[in-house]
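TICKET: design request
STATUS: open
ATTACHED STRUCTURE:
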């Protein structure tokens, strides 16, 4: 297995951004994932601000792994769709200028049987993908709560090679999908991997998040399978629950380094 490029989702550290960046560096990460809606205001990100932020990352010996842009509604919902698409379009050049070139979004509910809704989704994501190619920021669709087969069908209707997949094995499990089976559908499209683990809780009969390496997502096997598809992307640690995220994420970095 080739060396893993380890990212940390700064939001998972539950610290102010600048503190989180220092913590990520101290924990031994190679890069960080940033929320471009809630952690950074890309609409007000001037060239000077970009230079200053890149210098901060350079000083900490960190790379910008990827940006994520969460939206309140999805890309098939007609309400405020133009504003939603415009906000993502605005974030794309900032992603490239900060050095990542990857922007993760959630496509939302994919329902090909709903013709108008599906057409809006395809049109919106196509516009984002084409703009991303022009400015040097590839659009990645989050694969977690979305059925892998539905996402594969959606990708077949988008510009070939311009849209990738960000695979989240923990969320796939919670949604009732097997991560290894998802790779059979989408392996060649995966450009980004979340290092997040989960386990079936017998008491609550739910799938719950656990510390990396203590669940059933089989991340080392997933990385091995992805390598067969030529995967050389980031593996980014997410830890949304737990009482000590910094310790848990530090242990996750050590777990990945041991691979």
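STATUS: resolved
RESOLUTION: sequence designed for all positions
ATTACHED SEQUENCE:
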């Amino acid at each position: 297995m080739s060396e893993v490029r380890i990212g940390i989702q700064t939001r998972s550290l539950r610290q102010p951004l600048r503190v989180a960046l220092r913590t990520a560096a101290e924990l031994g990460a190679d890069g960080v994932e940033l929320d471009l809606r809630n952690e950074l205001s890309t609409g007000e990100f001037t060239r000077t601000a970009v230079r200053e932020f890149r210098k901060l990352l350079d000083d900490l010996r960190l790379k910008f792994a990827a940006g994520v842009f969460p939206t309140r509604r999805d890309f098939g919902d007609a309400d405020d769709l133009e504003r939603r698409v415009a906000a993502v379009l605005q974030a794309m050049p900032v992603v490239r200028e900060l050095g990542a070139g990857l922007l993760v979004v959630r496509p939302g509910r994919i329902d090909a049987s709903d013709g108008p809704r599906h057409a809006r989704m395809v049109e919106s994501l196509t516009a984002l993908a084409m703009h991303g190619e022009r400015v040097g920021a590839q659009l990645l669709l989050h694969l977690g709560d979305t059925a892998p087969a539905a996402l594969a069908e959606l990708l077949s209707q988008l510009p070939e090679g311009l849209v990738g997949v960000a695979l989240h094995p923990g969320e796939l499990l919670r949604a009732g999908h097997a991560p290894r089976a998802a790779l059979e559908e989408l392996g060649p499209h995966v450009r980004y991997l979340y290092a997040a683990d989960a386990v079936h809780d017998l008491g609550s009969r739910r799938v719950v998040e656990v510390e990396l390496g203590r669940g059933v997502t089989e991340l080392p096997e997933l990385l091995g399978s992805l390598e067969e598809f030529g995967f050389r992307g980031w593996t980014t640690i997410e830890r949304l629950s737990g009482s000590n995220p910094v310790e848990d994420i530090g242990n996750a970095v050590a777990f990945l380094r041991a691979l």
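CLOSING REMARK: The first strand starts at residue 5 and ends at 9. The chain has one domain: 5-258.
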